[in-house]
Amino acid sequence: MPSHGVLDYFQLKEYIQESPCGGFFERFMSKIKDYFKEIKAELAHVVWPSRKQTVYYTIIVIVLSVVVAYFLGLFDFIFLGGLKLLV
After folding, report:
1. Mean residue pLDDT across the chain
2. Residues 20 and 37 in one domain
3. Which end of the chain is more exposed for a tag (fewer CB within 10 A), N or C?
4. How far apart, in whole angstroms, are the C-alpha atoms of residue 72 and residue 78?
5. Number of domains in the chain
6. Are 1 and 42 part of one and the same domain?
7. Angle at 31 between CA 30 and CA 32, to 5 degrees
8. Is residue 41 domain-shared with residue 2, that is, in the same domain?
9. How far is CA 23 from each of CA 17, 29, 30, 34, 49, rounded to the nearest angstrom?
10. Domain containing 4: what range?
11. Which tens digit of pLDDT belongs to each residue from 5-40?
């Protein structure tokens, strides 16, 4: 490979195939391309929730988070009071 000037694509491809790596870049890019094709095929099989379901489940998550936070805060307050009595 010449050390000066700009190589065009075909010269670079020829150099890569003759290199000790033996076309590593092309195999790597081929694997990446196959990976994204498989992702696209899998996403075609996904059943996405409706907007109504998404809103409903989001509200459930928020409500449960608030309830859990309330109970954790309550228990923290109780244990803090108990600890102050001991110390």
Report:
1. 84
2. yes
3. C
4. 10
5. 2
6. yes
7. 90
8. yes
9. 5, 10, 11, 17, 43
10. 1-46
11. 565 666 666 666 665 555 677 778 888 999 999 999
